[in-house]
Amino acid sequence: MKVVLIEDNPAARRSFLELLNEYYPNVHFIGEATNVEEGIALITINQPDLVFLDIEMPDGTGFDLLRKFPKINFQVIFVSSHEKYALRAIKFSALDYLLKPIDPEELIEAIEKAKSEFEHHKTQQRVQTLINNINSQSKEPTQLVLKDKYGIQIVAVKDIIHLEANGSYTIFFINKQDSLLVSKGLKDYENILSSQQFFRCHQSHLINLDYLLRYDKRDGDYLILKDKSKIPLATRKKEILLKLINDLN
After folding, report:
1. Architecture of domain 2-135
2. Please, are residues 223 and 207 in contact by the beta-carbon 8 Å criterion?
3. What's the pLDDT tens digit per position in 84-116?
4. Pairing relation of β-strands 205-208 and 198-202?
């Protein structure tokens, strides 16, 4: 696997190379760049398999760099110093990222994941989703990449009605689409969608409040959604939900 690093901080570059040499001496490191312009040239000339890409650089961002490539034929792992909106957009796009200073175990996990996905190149769709989310006028990402056994699917966040836990998997119920069984747990999606209109109403259920029709307590506590779904409401969640509903009104 041919690897390049695009990072403007000299100390961060040295640290990365030390970790790479220690934990992945067999990886073919073919070059580094310090800004967007150099990074574009480095990728174009060397055709790497995997790019470690800083988000904020003197002449632009890692997203600006990706916009310059009409076709993404390499894996991308973002590297950043800050947890903020850009990283939320990355999570929604199912792309990987590392926070500085890089933890060796997280680096190993990221590279192993990139190696396992290398033969099933789906990076193009994920990057396009990322760019769409970054370009969106909304403060929140508007598209979410979901991976199932058939590949990946891009869905509009506003079309997600509710999510249901199925062991270590999650079932997505989507407006005017078939449900999707996704190989990631409900807790992961609760974290991703935490600042959107989603509410964990039960251990096994996460709902989009935009689809909430009514709260029904005639036969236990249930929530009725606009698609006629009947979702249980945990007792400990009732007071929180009622406050949320009151705040929405």
Report:
1. 3-Layer(aba) Sandwich (3.40)
2. yes
3. 767 888 989 989 999 999 999 999 999 988 887
4. antiparallel
